[in-house]
Amino acid sequence: MATTAKTVVATGASSGLGFHVIKHLLSQSSQPYNFILGARDVPRTQNAYQAAFPALSPSGSMDPHSLEILPLELSDLKTVKRFATQTLDKLGDRKIDYLLLNAGITNGAGTEKPGPGGSKWCEALVVNHLSQHYLTHLLLPALLRSRPNTDTTGTTESRIVVVSSGAIRGVTDPSTLPKDLLAGSGKDGDTVYAESKFVQLLGAHWWRRKLKETGCKVVAVSPGLIPGTGIGRGNGMLLTMEMKDAKSVEEGAQSILRAFTRDDFPEDPNRIFLTSWGEWWDTDTIGKTLDKELQDRWCYRKEEIEAEEGLTGL
Rounded to two decimals, what is the model's pTM? Predict the structure, then answer.
């Protein structure tokens, strides 16, 4: 019996870690995948994949896989909504097996306001959390869609993979988040990155709670310190392979790929954070992100996001 193709929808797969994750999955043929990737620069992203896979046709097919790249600018929630609409149209009645939320920036909050698209929040909070949280809301019907169990794996579960960071440990006082993450707060890139990724992890826990009675799992994963992605360019941070615990881009991609397949979940459902060395972080380490009131405060409903960000009626 033929293996049923799995669908992967991904952000942050134009280069760096996300590119290497998709490249790895495209390089094997035992499991077919249909990829739908969001990218700021569609032609450049298409060229990057074409250079890596000359057999990839202009239409995006490469037996047994398919690859489609759609425009997505995560600092603009209007394009997030368009991307989601296009993705759902492309899917038809197919389900999403994996939603990979990998995009991230390290920009500081700056001194100008409002933020992107008139948001009260700084760009890093919009990109690292708000836009991808909104995207999850929009794609949820396809993540929860049932499918006849015809593949050889015997599973119809879906999974949300949230690429997080050990930088969340730098947040010692979450009460400062509402002020620090405002556009124009002047907070530096290091602070804003740690705090916006902290909020992103709050979101992962929030979705885990909301989806606990469904077949959709949520896994947060840290790829480790990966200088080769250029992640520090947003705030001028210089990262090198000589730094303690630095890993290559390929090593970081392998950490993310583990989050696609690991099913040895701890008994404690709060332990959803997979470290770059392959262990599930204990609740003492991620304790501040387990505050349910804090999760609810930062994880808006779809309608709240659309009202707050001026998307109602679009």
Answer: 0.93
